[in-house]
Amino acid sequence: MGCAFIFYFSACTGLKHIDSSDPLLAKTNTVYGSKLNPSHARELKFEIADVNTPHPNGRFLWMRPAIAIYNFMGNPKKEKGLRQWIKKNLGKPPVRSGDVNPENVAVVMENRLFNYGYFNATVNFETYRKKKLLEITYFLFPGNNYEFDSITFPEKGSQISREITGSKSGTVIRKGSSFELNVLASELERIEAHMKDSGYFYFDKNYMKFRADTSSGENRVKLNLFLKPGLPSNASERMKIGNIVVHDDYTLEDYHPDTLSLDGITYLSHGFRTRPEIVLNEIHLREGEPYSRMLHLRSLNHLTSLGIYKFANANFIRDSIGNRLNTHYFLTPQKKNSLSAEINAVAKTNNYVGPGISLNWRNRNLFNGAETFSVNLDGSFEFQVGADSINTSIEIGIDAGLEIPRLVPFKFRKKNPEFIPVTNIKVGTRFYRRVELYTLTSFYTGIGYRWRQTRLIHHELLLPDISFNRVTDQTEAFQEYLEENPIVKSSFEEQFILGTGYNFTFDNQVKKNIHSIYVNVALESAGFLTSAFFNTIKGQVEQPEDQHEIFGVPYSQFFKIKTEFRNYIKTGRNSQVVTRGVIGMGIPYGNSAVIPYIRQFFAGGTNDIRAFVSRTVGPGSYDSPVSNLGVDQTGDIKLGANIEYRFSFNRLLKGALFLDAGNVWLKNEDPERAGASFEFNRFYKEIALGSGVGLRVDADFVVIRMDLAWPVYKPNLPEGERWVVEEINPLKSDWRRENLLLNIAIGYPF
Questions:
Q1: I need a labelling partner for 410 at 20 to 30 A (CA). Which of 220, 239, 400, 739 fits?
Q2: Are 605 and 699 in contact (CB under 8 A)?
Q3: Which of 569, 643, 656, 651 is nearest to 46 (CA)?
Q4: DSSP symbol at 75
Q5: pTM exceeding 0.85
Q6: Mean pLDDT over residues 138-144, rounded?
Q7: CA 516 to CA 567: how far, in whole Å?
Q8: What is the DSSP string of 289-332?
């Protein structure tokens, strides 16, 4: 067995089929002879890494798994079989010395340096061979970096020259900044956008050109922007919108629509399934006004955002008379009704297994105003195998929602907003049965408003957000546990929640970004208006021991805030470091002594501290003596942090190394749960730590994630025994059974 182990991992090095006459490209290095300008050093180094092709095969420790898979699959007989798919998507052929042309790579590197203002750059290289391996080192000598000095716009002779020159206040070229070719490209795109938004429909950035002057001898570049000779006549014409025609349900088949004229727009439809004013409200170009590409694209974006059209296109045809563009909108409807189903299976390393199913029915354009009505039904069944007692959980939920592409019942609206605001109305109920414990039934309803301030900033307001929760069918063992823990018992009691919520999200993640961040702030308040109403009627302030009620049920009062920050830093061509921090706090007051169970924080799970089963961490250093009951461990305060290094083996197969930390605490001391409350002098000693490795299959449309994690620090153990690093021993079956946790999930954890 030991020999087989050694043989297998030797094959994984990828050198088995490599000949020393054509060695494997093992590594490429880049050495810079002088420092780069800090303003673009990181971006330029990534570009240099990208052109340093072909890239060596990915490695994990001493292994090259992609090559091993490629070799192991051999030559499949079938072109479309599973074996061929594995070889093509999970495997990768070895990159040999014959695949590399370092002379060409050096020339391309010089070109990239030139694009960033290093006009006198040179690149040399050296190769080093050791048996079956080849290593190439490129030596880059950038030289001096040139800077922008000044820019001269076209003379104000013609109308189009005056229009271009009139836009110079918005130039992206700054005196003293590093010369970069992409800045020149951005300036041409900016001018083109300005011209098209000013009515110059036929104008194109390729009609302009820069002339650079570096003769000053001070590493400065003077720019002269000019129009190329032979400018087409229509490029200098300012076009206006002519007749506007909307084809509401356009099809390539036999099309005989009815015609309606509304607000100067011709509206063609077969049956007028959607009220015309709903559609026309999202068209922002108007007859007689200058053409604007911004309004053109915004109209198409709004039309598709209604959710009832599969495609939205606009054709502009020049009128035979004058400088007018007759405009035709062709809208292709979505299917009015759709039904989708999703089946999943869960297999957890704590021996929980079970299937799940989700059904969704959607009706688009319910009231002929682009409303989308949906009904969702989902259910799951889990049971624990191999335990002394069978722990089973059943969850069933059904909800209905109505999404309206406008603010209801409000009428105000910013003229030509970039994004359409949305109103969501929801109602639903969930049934959660923990066999041998309890049954939790919840009912919820509310109205939410969602809008985007910019492409990066999102807002969501829940007003109101109502829920009612009831626990029934409590077993004797669970009742005994609640009697021994009165604060936990209070969180499980029947409660009526009438509140409001607000979510703020900033997200600038773009694949090409070297550094991007994600920020989310969620606020929730319950019982404030309810309290004011009842205090006015009853003339007395509620207290936890003397609660006010709605429909015979106490209402909850609490304030809750949760913030999450993520930081994405690209560290290589196919690698990045992602960090996340989470801070949350809930404060009960007035009518409530504790926050309702369903609103409390928890730690652990596939997207949190992956070395611990969900809801089994904390609170604080409290060690639950009834863990065999499976009672969830929750708290009023949460702190969490994660760091994950992500890298690629190939286009489809990704890897990760991670460290997770966090815990939950109670805001107030609980005499029955020692160590559960948050204290500044010891909370840092109660942060659970877990580490692990991950393997992800990233197929663009879906990511299948497998994270293998193990605990490093257990806060529920006595002080002095919480670090368990020395106990880590993957070769021992007892340690693996008690500590290794395999998380299988869809999507990245954050």
A1: 400
A2: no
A3: 569
A4: -
A5: no
A6: 94
A7: 6
A8: SBP-HHHHHHHHHHHHHTSSEEEEEEEEEE-SSSSEEEEEEEEE
Contacts 24+ apart (CB under 8 A), 72-75: 72/11
Residues with Cβ < 8 Å from 303, sequence gap 6 or more?
Answer: 279, 282, 283, 309, 312, 329, 331
Q: Within the chain, what is the greatest distance between any pair of CA atoms?
A: 94
Q: Give me 515's structure tokens.
A: 């550094």
Q: Residue count of the chain, please give it.
A: 750
What is the rounded distance in angstroms from the CA atom of residue 491 to the CA atom of residue 632? 12
CA distances for 282 relative to 54, 278, 564, angstroms: 48, 7, 34
Round to whole Å and give the CA distance between 125 and 137.
6
Helix axes 2-11, 65-73, angle to 10 degrees: 100
9 CB neighbour count, 10 Å cutoff: 13
Q: What are phi and psi of 214, to 5 degrees?
A: -115, 20
pLDDT at 694: 92
pLDDT for the residue 745: 78
Residue with tokens 């000095």: 149
Q: Cβ(119)–Cβ(148) under 8 Å?
A: no
Q: What is the per-residue pLDDT across 282-315, written as a single tens digit (0 to 9) for each?
A: 999 999 999 999 999 999 999 999 999 999 999 9
Residue 462 has pLDDT above 80, yes or no: yes
Contacts (Cβ under 8 Å, ≥6 apart) of 389: 436, 628
pLDDT of 200 > 70? The answer is yes
Task: Say how many C-beta atoms besides its own lie within 10 A of residue 494's C-beta.
Answer: 14
